[in-house]
Fold each of these.
Amino acid sequence: MVTFTVVERDPSCRARTGILDLPHGAVRTPQFMPVGTNGTVKAIAHADLEDMGIGLILANTYHLYLRPGVEVIRAAGGLHRFMSWTRNVLTDSGGYQVFSLAPFRKIEPEGVEFRSHIDGARHFLTPEDVVDIQNALGSDVLMTLDVCTPPGIDRDRAIDALRTTSEWARRSKARMSEERSSASGSLFGIVQGNFFKDLRRRSAEEIASLDFPGIAIGGLSVGESFAQFEELLEYTSGFLPPDRPRYLMGVGTPDYLFAAVENGVDLFDCVFPTRIARNGAAFTRRGLVSLKKEARRLEFEPLERSCRCPTCLRYSRAYLRHLYKAKEILAPMLATRHNLHFLNELAREIRLSIQEGRFASFKRQFLSEYSAGEEDGNE
Ligand SMILES: [Zn+2]
């Protein structure tokens, strides 16, 4: 079971620090979770995650259900044993992947029918199945199956998705209660409502009324403008129970991360830091840096002078560029290590700033330096 204790609150906003006690150890919040889609955080070994002090990673139910399949993971004794990870795992419900990856999906009141993006095979999953699958994985934090919708849909479609999400949340909660004796994890509900304020409020209130031990905010950071993201996040978070952990899905860049924490978000995840590492981009305090650029050819200093990660302590920008140019497998490994270290350190500094009551000034100072910088990683 999960228990959550708010430790400090920042006087200027909803930012707080806390301790999330989970079956595989306590996690300090706010906390960034690296994404381990297939039961591995891409291009980094578990020992390195442990060295960094990562206590919680995310794994994707959709991917693991399709491959290697639940029966393999069950036979291994659960996902922790299968992947040899002794700390916590949060699994998503697969809802987002069904909508973003499956070549076909059909929502019915009973559940969702979809075709696998791997082999095209048809599957049908109910919200109860999704709880069962996550319990078979041995997840520490489970998510309810929800209906994700893209920005720009009409109100009627958004209402349909909200109704289904709330109904599935009720059914998921009931299933979790039946399995209480055999399951060690905790089930979080997910707020939807698309980009309509009143629907966001309605969804937040309906999900909050089900008394989940934690709540996720879904359907944001899905292609809308930053201003719209911030407005909806601020509005939605006002209707969430203040004593429950909040998880904002799909957030992993400094500007979004600060906005999340400012609104009382405790957990976030994103593939961004590991994905850009594989594409040759790295976080620095002065913005993203592209490691493939000609400008890096003779830069014999570390990626970031102040960074204490193993990549920066040992290797130069010029060497990293050479590795990318030569398509060496070490290149994404070293950049991934740095990018996760960067976000983990940022979360630690954010916690410290809240503890010392100076979150707002830390945010201002960090983001002004970040946005003034090199910012060439997207090219
Ligand atoms: Zn570094």
Note: DSSP finds 15 helices and 16 strands in the chain.
Amino acid sequence: MVRTNPNLIKEIKKLGAFDITACYSCGECTAICPLSENNFELPRMMIRYSILGLEDKLLSSPQLWLCYYCGECSESCPRDADPGALMMAARRYAIIKYSLGGIARIFYSKVMSVVSLIILSIIAALGIYLFKKPLDLTKFNPFSLLSYEFIHTAGLVLAAYIAIVALLQGIKMYNCIKHSALEGNLSAGAKVKNLIKSFFIMLFGEVLAERRYLKCDRKNRYIAHMTVFWGFVLMFIATTLDYLKNSNILGLRESYEIIKAINIEIFGVLARIIGIIGGLIGIYGSIYFIYKRLVKDDVYSEYSHVSDWIFLILISLGILTGFLIDIFIYTNMPLLAYVMFAIHLIFVFDLIVTAPFTKFAHLGYRLIAVWFYEYQKLKLSK
Ligand code: SF4
Ligand code: SF4
């Protein structure tokens, strides 16, 4: 039996600016949407689910996550119903529903999201204050502020936290979409084959190139989106290399000849180059989106949810403080470099702890959705 939620459209409405009651189902938005296909009418299918209160259908639709909010449907809507904004708000709603205990709701409320960020920042600052060591003021050394053991343990705890929460929420989403995505009378072998094939289509098409986004007309937005994503990837690689260098490759150098032969300084040089490239392209993308949201010269940027602002501000400040650390190191101002390092760690902590519930969560859910969507397409093509 199909369960309905009569308040669905009202609840989604709280998470975005659209006027879907104005919709008279003309289909113009579906005709123009570059992602709409014969069997999957975007965004009209999601509009219908939302208006009819078909919450289970909405949450079990991989199609909800295909859209990057290019805004073409909103521009073409003769009733100014802003269907693109509905898609965005419905994804925020899905993030709340997939989250453990609905905890993501906190990060989509203006007051609660700001309060929770202040609390998280205080926790991070207190942690730094309580575990800080006497500073080496002759030159900047991150392990002079916090010991290697502390950073190593804190990193492991945060990585385990992200992995566990992402896994549990991913399973929750999978349980929602599996019936619609995996149903059908394929043999077990054909299912496995299609799942592997669709996984690689998702990996190379969506993760590496955001192929779907390319279908939209706004190439500047596509480039900015890619730069934010690849900026993060490169900065993550740089942080890992720097960590390996500073930790002497996790202390394995003494035990294995092959690791002893590696010139450890290369890790530091590579980390620097990759980090600077990642930081520059990441800051370009985030400032582009901040600028667009300020000037509001595009339909997609006319309305900004508090979660959009928090995400963009946190990543911009995280990258900028990273650059400032380098500037203070190169200008031989170790004390300022330590202060900036502490502030940088607070922003990074905030980003990591909130990641499974905010815009970062889009990435994980989108990948699962695209994987099963590609699976559905392979199944239908038989
Ligand atoms: S174009 Fe506007 S009015 Fe027409 S179906 Fe889409 S949202 Fe409704
Ligand atoms: S915002 Fe773009 S991709 Fe999303 S439903 Fe509208 S036209 Fe399609």
Note: The chain has two domains: 8-100, 111-381.
Amino acid sequence: MQMARVLVLGAGPAGISAALYARRGGAQVTVVHKGKGTSALSRAELVQNYYGLEEAVPGAELERRGLAGAIALGISLVEDEILALDYGEGFQGFRAVSPGKTYEADSVIIAAGTTRKAPKIKGLRELEGHGVSYCAVCDAFLYRGKVTAVLGSGEYALHEAEALLPHAAEVLLFTQGEEAPSRLPPQVKVHKSPVTALEGTERLTGILLENGDTIVAEGLFVALGTASGSELARKLGVMLAGQDIKTDAHMATNVPGVFAAGDCTGGLLQIAKAVYQGAEAGLSAVKFLREKK
Ligand SMILES: Cc1cc2nc3c(=O)[nH]c(=O)nc-3n(C[C@H](O)[C@H](O)[C@H](O)COP(=O)(O)OP(=O)(O)OC[C@H]3O[C@@H](n4cnc5c(N)ncnc54)[C@H](O)[C@@H]3O)c2cc1C
């Protein structure tokens, strides 16, 4: 019989801890992450406040040990960037979509950390939910026949622009000075000049650029960098509290089979908490899969 498949999104302390517990619980575990040096852990110069460290250890070295430990336990680690999470087609489970691949799983653990930087654009926070959105798959239908924009320049921004094209009258891409993605459909109009402010009181009406131009638009989808854990969770209908993924004490979200752990759940942003929540999420995913059989 095929082993239940658990997909862990993220290879920081939360993701690796979740993977270890799910693997020891008998699941077939795949961890997808953006590669070495992409976790918050890898940016910690020296870690001194974690159990068992006689001397302070660089975060990058702890990351290396974590990845090596997972591989030693037979966990499959894949370097890729997940752009969207979705429900399975033709099977009860989930799909994670990257630029070149689709991963299928019976349960998903989101441990993608948190993005600590928010774009500093005047009016952005005020217009969230009033023209500013973070999920094209969820909200594209609201912009049917309207001029709609995407903020970003990577694969994630490309994915959001493609999701909007069938709905919006016109799709614009604001790249904040960066080059547009090479595979961008030709009908998407690119603006390289950075966005400085958003206009509109009740709802978004226009986008003000550094070069002085104002571009009329009724929707703006923020897709800077890569999709964060909460952005991916939102696409599945997972409840958030602000930018944090909401879970119960066993790290279960409101969507059966989807769990979350670590910085993406908010609270204490520390390794000890990420490792604990990862362990709990891994155990919970295994329990969920056993009860589902
Ligand atoms: C400078 C700095 C110093 C710190 N010092 C300490 C300290 O001394 N002690 C301490 O306890 N804590 C410290 N922290 C906090 C600690 O690093 C974090 O709390 C911890 O790393 C959180 O673990 P996590 O697994 O939730 O997320 P992360 O460690 O951020 O890992 C996130 C993972 O998700 C992956 N990912 C994200 N998005 C995607 C996507 N779309 N597709 C695929 N993969 C994705 C990334 O590649 C990465 O593998 C520090 C943090 C920083 C930034």
Note: The first strand starts at residue 5 and ends at 9.
